[in-house]
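User: Can you model how zinc ion sits in this protein?
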Amino acid sequence: MTCFTCKGETEERLTTFTIDIEGRVYIIKGIPSRVCTQCGAVSYSDEVMGQVEKMVDGMKNGITEVSMATYAA
Ligand SMILES: [Zn+2]
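Assistant: Here's the modeled complex, given as C-alpha coordinates:
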Protein backbone atom coordinates (compact mmCIF):
# COMPACT_ATOMS: atom_id res chain seq x y z
CA MET A 1 0.00 0.00 0.00
CA THR A 2 1.27 3.49 -0.82
CA CYS A 3 0.60 6.80 0.91
CA PHE A 4 -2.45 8.79 -0.27
CA THR A 5 -0.62 12.06 0.22
CA CYS A 6 2.86 11.55 -1.21
CA LYS A 7 2.74 8.02 -2.72
CA GLY A 8 5.55 7.00 -0.39
CA GLU A 9 5.93 3.59 1.22
CA THR A 10 3.79 2.76 4.24
CA GLU A 11 4.48 0.33 7.03
CA GLU A 12 2.31 -1.28 9.69
CA ARG A 13 2.69 0.33 13.06
CA LEU A 14 0.74 0.75 16.28
CA THR A 15 -0.33 4.35 16.79
CA THR A 16 -2.29 6.40 19.28
CA PHE A 17 -5.54 8.04 18.20
CA THR A 18 -6.71 11.19 19.95
CA ILE A 19 -10.03 12.88 19.35
CA ASP A 20 -11.66 15.88 21.00
CA ILE A 21 -15.46 15.78 21.14
CA GLU A 22 -17.40 18.54 22.87
CA GLY A 23 -14.51 19.46 25.13
CA ARG A 24 -13.71 15.92 26.15
CA VAL A 25 -10.65 14.08 24.97
CA TYR A 26 -10.59 10.40 24.02
CA ILE A 27 -7.29 8.61 23.61
CA ILE A 28 -6.98 5.11 22.21
CA LYS A 29 -3.57 3.50 22.21
CA GLY A 30 -2.12 0.61 20.23
CA ILE A 31 -4.20 0.98 17.09
CA PRO A 32 -3.02 -1.09 14.10
CA SER A 33 -2.43 1.44 11.34
CA ARG A 34 -0.36 2.23 8.26
CA VAL A 35 2.21 4.96 8.62
CA CYS A 36 4.00 6.59 5.69
CA THR A 37 7.76 6.29 6.04
CA GLN A 38 8.17 9.46 3.98
CA CYS A 39 5.65 12.04 5.28
CA GLY A 40 4.34 10.35 8.43
CA ALA A 41 0.68 10.33 7.36
CA VAL A 42 -1.35 7.78 9.30
CA SER A 43 -4.24 5.80 7.85
CA TYR A 44 -6.58 3.21 9.34
CA SER A 45 -8.57 0.45 7.69
CA ASP A 46 -12.38 0.83 7.67
CA GLU A 47 -12.60 -2.08 10.07
CA VAL A 48 -10.21 -0.48 12.56
CA MET A 49 -11.90 2.92 12.23
CA GLY A 50 -15.30 1.35 12.95
CA GLN A 51 -13.93 -0.30 16.07
CA VAL A 52 -12.35 2.96 17.23
CA GLU A 53 -15.70 4.76 16.83
CA LYS A 54 -17.40 2.03 18.87
CA MET A 55 -14.79 2.38 21.61
CA VAL A 56 -15.19 6.17 21.72
CA ASP A 57 -18.97 5.73 21.98
CA GLY A 58 -18.47 3.30 24.83
CA MET A 59 -16.33 5.82 26.72
CA LYS A 60 -18.86 8.65 26.43
CA ASN A 61 -20.51 7.61 29.68
CA GLY A 62 -17.36 8.35 31.64
CA ILE A 63 -17.14 11.42 33.84
CA THR A 64 -13.52 12.34 33.37
CA GLU A 65 -12.39 14.99 30.89
CA VAL A 66 -9.85 12.64 29.40
CA SER A 67 -10.68 9.01 28.66
CA MET A 68 -7.97 6.57 27.71
CA ALA A 69 -8.20 3.02 26.42
CA THR A 70 -6.10 0.45 24.63
CA TYR A 71 -7.38 -0.78 21.29
CA ALA A 72 -9.05 -4.17 21.37
CA ALA A 73 -10.59 -5.76 18.28
ZN1 LIG B 1 3.36 10.04 2.62
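A couple of observations from the model: Residues 10-70 form a domain with the Ubiquitin-like (UB roll) fold (CATH 3.10.20.860). The mean pLDDT is 95.
User: Helpful, thanks.
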